[in-house]
Write a structure and sequence with these properties.
The structure holds 2 protein chains of 2 kinds. Chain A is mostly helical. Chain A has 2 domains: 23-67; 73-280, Orthogonal Bundle (MetI-like fold), CATH 1.10.3720. Chain A has helices at residues 2-19, 25-61, 67-70, 73-85, 88-120, 122-137, 144-151, 153-178, 182-190, 195-206, 208-233, 238-247, 251-280. Chain A is flat. Chain B is α/β, with parallel strands linked by helices. Chain B folds into 2 domains: 1-84 and 161-266, Rossmann fold; 92-159, no CATH class. Chain B is built from 10 helices and 10 strands. In chain B, helix 5 runs parallel beside helix 6 (174-191) and helix 7 (202-208) packs across helix 9. Chain B is globular, with a radius of gyration of 19 Å. The two termini of chain B are 35 Å apart. Classes of the chains: A mainly alpha, B alpha/beta. Chain A binds chain B through residues 181, 183-184, 186-193, 197, 201-202, 205-206, 208, 282-287, 289-290, and chain B through 61, 63, 80-81, 83, 85, 87, 89, 91, 93-97, 106-107, 109-111, 138-144, 147, 158, 171-173.
Chain lengths: 290, 266
């Protein structure tokens, strides 16, 4: 994404400068080669996807692979249609999506609060630092059964989604807070800013780019937390469908659920990228505009 | 010296000593520094790097407190940053998430000033500094010289009496630096501000200031003071660019260069 920014930033003045005079043959050839490269990349990407689906469809039908193990795209399409018509697709997708969003928002909010607390008091940071490092290194998935026993089916899924993303959020944001230019903090202190004002006027707005990279990491992590949580606990949701489908050896169901998950994660990621593009426009050029 | 004995000094630094502590060692950064600056005076402090000249500026701004001694502004002892003091950094420290106008207004915002008046003043300053078309642009869209002018507007918007400039031109390229120091000297002279400029650039100090103070290497002490005058130019004070052409310039430069002991440091 940042690559795209750099390219757009450097390309814009070039095209503006050369728009008025006629484009030289060399420049036209350069633009044509840029377009050709884009075509080649996109062609390969589409081709690889098509090849993958084609092999997946043909392999089981020709008896190269056992369809019981892999299912195949047309069967998945059929399952999707059936589940759409009986409403179960919407139900399970909605359950999972809701859990992802709650876990994601919860991890982000709680993580930001903790990071602010660490920034606020260096003493608290020094005390908490080793615990955070250990908790971050601990595989949170090991806690799934405990969360289930303590919190029950729904709450344990939320807790899992939050636990998986929380410590990464704290560490990433705190590092971002510390990377804020100390002269900007001095600037507002010279105007008599309180600690709260340093936070709201400098540290938080200055950390927006860090927050967005944290969001990107957390979308993936919240998904992991939710699905693992559902494996253990759920009565509905895509993770539940995956375990249920594998227990009754219904690969169509398993593969359909994974497909829907892939769509959800792609859409969420695209959403964050578009937020990033809008928000980072003003941060994009960076502080050294000389 | 001017006869200013009847006035309350704009800044008075009395016997200030400052120690820095780190787990490894204790450092004496400033030793018995005393300095008086009269209202409307432009004082430059020069010294080799690490001599404590920026530390002295931080002390006057109230950001740090002396280990011993006292700092007063307009006769009142200070213990915290005062709204009467404006500070310009080496970097422009513009906030890239705010527009140029919003950047210029941050002081007024934090000091709780009348925002309507502040906004009018900020717009007026920015227009005068050639940034009229960029009021709603983000700092990333400005050149280095424009950014530093936006920073000056931010500093002057809350109408400070005293300006502390901490090498405000050193991050700029040479041409921009000469042009901007000329502009800023004119602006500050028109507004009648008291200015303390910290720099390692001897030429900048001589060309802009009424008085140049030379600091010794650590621990920083005041080594020499020079009243700067250009009789060859006539009655008026020359602009920095004109001053560089005056015959007196080279003499001041040589004297101050010798006092800085730069050859010994190498």
């Amino acid at each position: 994404m940042s690559m795209n920014f750099a390219a757009a930033g450097s390309a814009a003045p070039t095209s503006a400068d050369t728009a008025a005079p006629a484009r030289s043959p060399g420049y036209r050839a350069y633009l044509a080669s840029l377009r050709r490269d884009t075509w080649i990349v996109q062609g390969w990407q589409l081709g690889l996807v098509a090849l993958f689906f084609a092999l997946w469809e043909i392999g089981p039908r020709m008896g190269w692979i056992n369809p019981m193990l892999t299912s195949y795209p047309s069967a998945i399409a059929g399952t999707l249609m059936k589940m759409t018509s009986d409403g179960s697709l919407v139900l399970h997708t909605w359950v999972t999506l809701k859990e992802i969003l709650v876990g994601f928002a919860g991890g982000m909010a709680l993580g930001t609060l903790l990071a602010v607390a660490l920034w606020w008091s260096p003493m608290v940071y020094r005390i908490a630092d080793p615990f955070i490092v250990v908790l971050n290194a601990l595989p949170k998935i090991a806690l799934v059964p405990i969360f289930y026993i303590w919190l029950g089916d729904m709450a344990s899924i939320y807790a899992m989604a939050i636990a998986v993303s929380l410590f990464v959020t704290v560490l990433m944001l705190f590092t971002g807070f510390q990377a804020i230019d100390p002269d900007k903090v001095r600037l507002v202190r010279l105007f008599g800013a309180s600690q709260v004002q340093v936070l709201t006027k400098i540290v938080l707005p200055g950390s927006v780019p860090t927050m967005i990279s944290t969001l990107k990491v957390n979308v993936g992590l919240a998904l992991v937390g939710v699905i693992v949580g559902e494996f253990q606990a759920a009565k509905a949701g895509l993770g539940y469908l995956i375990t249920y489908g594998s227990q009754i050896f219904q690969m169509n169901l398993v593969m359909t659920s994974i497909f829907v998950l892939a769509v959800i994660s792609t859409l969420l990621f695209a959403l964050i990228q578009s937020v990033e593009a809008t928000v980072l426009r003003r941060y994009g050029s960076g502080p050294s505009g000389t | 010296m001017l006869d200013t004995s009847s006035l309350v000094p704009a800044v008075s630094v009395e016997n200030v000593t400052l120690n820095y502590y780190t787990p490894e060692r204790e450092t004496l950064a400033l030793a018995n520094v005393s300095l008086g600056v009269q209202p409307g005076e432009f004082v430059a402090i020069v010294g080799s790097s690490g001599c404590g000249k920026s530390t002295l500026l931080s002390l006057i701004s109230g950001l740090i407190r002396p280990s011993q001694g006292a700092v007063s502004i307009g006769g009142a002892r200070i213990s915290a940053p005062s709204p009467r003091v404006g500070y310009m950094f080496q970097k422009d420290t513009l906030l890239e998430w705010r527009t140029v106008l919003e950047n210029a207004l941050i002081g007024a915002e934090l000091l709780g000033l009348d925002m309507k008046k502040a906004r009018m003043r900020a717009e007026d300053l920015l227009v005068r500094y050639g940034l009229g078309e960029f009021l709603h642009a983000f700092p990333g869209q400005l050149s280095g010289g424009m950014r530093q002018r936006a920073a000056l507007a931010r500093t002057l918007c809350p109408e400070p009496d005293l300006l502390l400039l901490d090498e405000p031109f050193s991050a700029l390229d040479y041409q921009t630096r000469l042009a901007l120091s000329d502009e800023i000297a004119a602006i500050l002279q028109n507004e009648g501000k008291t200015v303390i400029l910290v720099t390692h650039d001897i030429g900048e100090a001589i060309s802009m200031a009424n008085r140049v103070i030379v600091m010794s290497r650590r621990p920083g002490r005041i080594k020499e003071e020079h009243a700067i005058a250009f009789p060859s130019f006539g009655e008026d004070r020359p602009t920095p660019l004109e001053a560089r052409k005056c015959v007196e310039f080279a003499g001041y430069f040589q004297t101050i260069w010798d006092q800085l002991d730069i050859h010994q440091a190498q």
